[in-house]
Amino acid sequence: MKPDSAYIAISTVLVIMSAVVILTTAATIAAVTNLNQGTVSFQSHRTRALLEGCVSDALLYLNIQNDLTTSFVQPEITCSVTTDSHTGNDWLFTVTGTADGITKSLQIGANRTPPTLTVTSWKEI
């Protein structure tokens, strides 16, 4: 083997190895980023589900007491309840909760005409 061909072979191997290292690093970074996004998405859905439990508690409390409490404490989430408006039998209130570092709010409209309670609107804000 000639000395020039040895340098070319070594240089070629080094370039190929560098490309492999760069591609492997990029793939690892992409996988970690994707995993983090999946975790945040899961936590967001989990917070929403826990918050809906607080809304159910608020609706039950409203139906029984014809009033709203200011908070509900559950094992994995604490929710605050704010009355936005109350006119006659019509209620508009917001339930906000934080779980896993993610805060979500739902605004609920309800009509309480004893003995029934009807949800008239439900939206995430």
Please provide a written account of the structure:
By secondary structure, this protein is of the alpha+beta class. It has one domain: Pantoate--beta-alanine Ligase, Chain: A,domain 2 (2-Layer Sandwich). The chain has one helix at 3-65; strands spanning 71-74, 77-87, 90-99, 102-113, 116-124. A hairpin with a 2-residue loop joins β2 (77-87) and β3. The chain is rod-shaped.
Highlighted features:
125 residues; alpha+beta; Pantoate--beta-alanine Ligase, Chain: A,domain 2; five-stranded antiparallel beta sheet; 37% strand
Quickly describe the structure:
This protein is α+β, with helices and mostly antiparallel strands and 125 residues long. It has 1 helix and 5 strands. The model has no long low-confidence stretch (mean pLDDT 91).
The general outline is rod-shaped
Question: What are the secondary-structure elements, in order, as H or E?
Answer: HEEEEE
The CATH topology name reads: Pantoate--beta-alanine Ligase, Chain: A,domain 2
**What's the main sheet like?**
5 strands, antiparallel
List the helices and strands and how they pair.
Elements: H1 3-65, E1 71-74, E2 77-87, E3 90-99, E4 102-113, E5 116-124
Antiparallel strand pairs: 1-2, 2-3, 3-4, 4-5
